[in-house]
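User: Show me an example of a complex going from sequences to structure tokens.

Assistant: Sure. Here are the input components:
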Amino acid sequence: MLTKKVKSRVYLISLILVSISIALFFILRSLNNNILYFKTPSDIKLEKTVNYNKIRIGGMVKKNSLKIDSEEIEFTVTDFKNELIVSYRGTVPNLFSEGKGVVAEGVLSDKNFFIADRILAKHDEEYMPPELKDLLKDNVK
Amino acid sequence: MLSNLGNIILFLNALITLSIIYISIQKIKIKDQVVSKNIYQLSLFQSTLIISSFFILVIGFVTSDFSMITVYQNSHTLKPLIYKISGTWGNHEGSLLLWLIILSLFSFLFLVYNKSRPGNFRIYTLIVQNILILGFLFFLLFNSNPFSAISPIPKEGLGLNPILQDPALAIHPPLLYLGFVGSSIYFSAAIASMLANYPGKLFAQSIKNWVLISWWFQTVGILAGSIWAYYELGWGGFWFWDPVENASLLPWFAMTALFHSLLVLEKRNLFYFWVIILCILTFILCVTGTFLVRSGILNSVHTFASDPSRGIYILFFLSFLILSSVFILFKKFQTGNYKINTNSKETYILVNNWFMIFYLITVLLGTIYPIFTEVLTNHKVSVGPPFYNTVIIPIVVLFLIFMSLGPRTKWIKDRFQDFFLLIKLLTGSILVNFFIVIFFKSYSLLSNLIIISSLFLIFSSLLDLISSLKRTNTDFSRVISHLSFGFLILFIGLNHNFSFEKDFNLKVGEKKKIDDYTVEFEDLKLENFKNYKAVVGNFKIDNNKKKLNLSLNPEIRIYQQPSTLTYEASIRTGILKDYYLTMSNIDRSDYYNIKFQKKPFMLWIWVSVILISAGGLVRLFKNENKIS
């Protein structure tokens, strides 16, 4: 027989373990629901079905592709193999311009059209998101 | 010239550090308990030397001595003097030098301020701290030397990133570093306390003020960074759950848990090893934060120029710290007496610690998760604010309620009383929330809960304040900090729910109507400044209903060195709300991209944080008075 002291200790430890695992379960589940995958126009082309979850896309803003009216901005993002049209309502960050790299957050409306709700800010012109750097290394030689 | 002088001083410093370690180990060996005069002298000399090497670097920046790579890469002759000076710590090498100054200075001050403590505890602390100094000194000398020379000497520097040329960001790194590196001294003291068998109450007294000091700087440093992000980054937010921001928040959680647990250790002589673990954890998290920021392993909007080789060294040093401290911990660990009554202050402080650890784990997982997914599945992912909001915010409700109950409980054992009072407070909070809902229109259930629980904390802290005014032994520091924390959450909640934001594009001369507001783009002016040109927009904001009529002047600044554009938001800060307008231009077009925001209670968010930190200062001064 277990003594009373040991019994209460076992209860305490199992209570702690259970609460830790519940907490971890919720954290990890919510983590999985809230991660944003980074994709390039080519990745999107290669996918068989269009995924309507929120994602990040990246590439270069194509030269002479920028169109603006009083409500929204539209431009083409290219990774030099495939292209994607992005429409955006909102303010663009520093250094957003044609021929420069861009990372946008939002949802696809079909395989060729992306609705962004955020364009990511950068601190200086030399900085490039690591994703973009790899991408350019692969495609531009 | 300066470069050679700096290098000589750094090498001298390494020699002094080695001799301090050598002398101290000799003393431990012969069981000599006295901290001799030469140790004081060496420590003082060490601090003086490292400070003077820092001044040499400052002189290099002020006189634009481009023979040093660091100065060449981060300065420019046309930069205003204050940003030449702040450029010293605005880069990786210079900030590491600042890191070393704080390590050495704290080492010396701890030695001086703990004269009454046993000699072996002080000597062990000194040894551990000097091992840290040596580790970072080697890193500085062989990997990130601020005094590296360049030849041929360039005529002009590359300039400091314009976005960093800002008063808040001039003081932000030193503040945060005092918090980060300040935690080193209680890491060293914790290791020393285990090695020298100096546990319990006395150990708690020896480190409590140091914990408070680093916590204060950490809090104020985070605040300065948030204010900067608010007005400089142009999206109107102040916290983005970005990896770099998280890196500063992680040690803050650990420090907050630590100084709460220290109270228990001091008053009741409980939780000794838990305190030790928190001391170690805090400093480890600080070094981890530095590793994450400096190695460039994480994708952050704040990413600074980074270099993988730095990461490898820090990672190596970090593993050494973790392994050796865990080894010592396991060797010395004893199960203590953890019998505490469920309804006692001890329990509530433990509950506080559980919450802190929960937040810590959540933020840590969110921050490093992308690294794991990339290594394991080769998917590039990022974890956004929704993750933190869904995990952290519901728990804050519970946290605030425990935070209201805890301080009303007595040490050792308490009976459940004041039950009706609590019900009254809760009813009051729900009532006030009801009025807020009527006034501002409805919002989500979670927001309701957050606002009710923060009001609950505010009311119970206010009662606490009133009743403690009657007594003589008032604990103002706790009341101030808890009350302000309640206000902080309340204002963040209100701000989050009642902010108003609209993006649109305008040409010069055009008008835009949004609800009751009219935004008119009147004209553009070009102005010339010493180191940049500015395009200044003139906007008129009208609201007939509220008889509001104000003009805002956002700027686009064009810097030449390095050639960069920055957008300066125009913010009209008011007691109840801020108006916030940014303007950016778009390629090949007459349109300007406008973001207009109304942000309620921004000022009060800053004030609450200042008051929270003030609570820490009150406690610090009270502790000091008690000693003298």
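The lines above are the inputs; the final block is the predicted structure for all two components together. Confidence is low (pLDDT under 50) at residues 123-127 of chain A.
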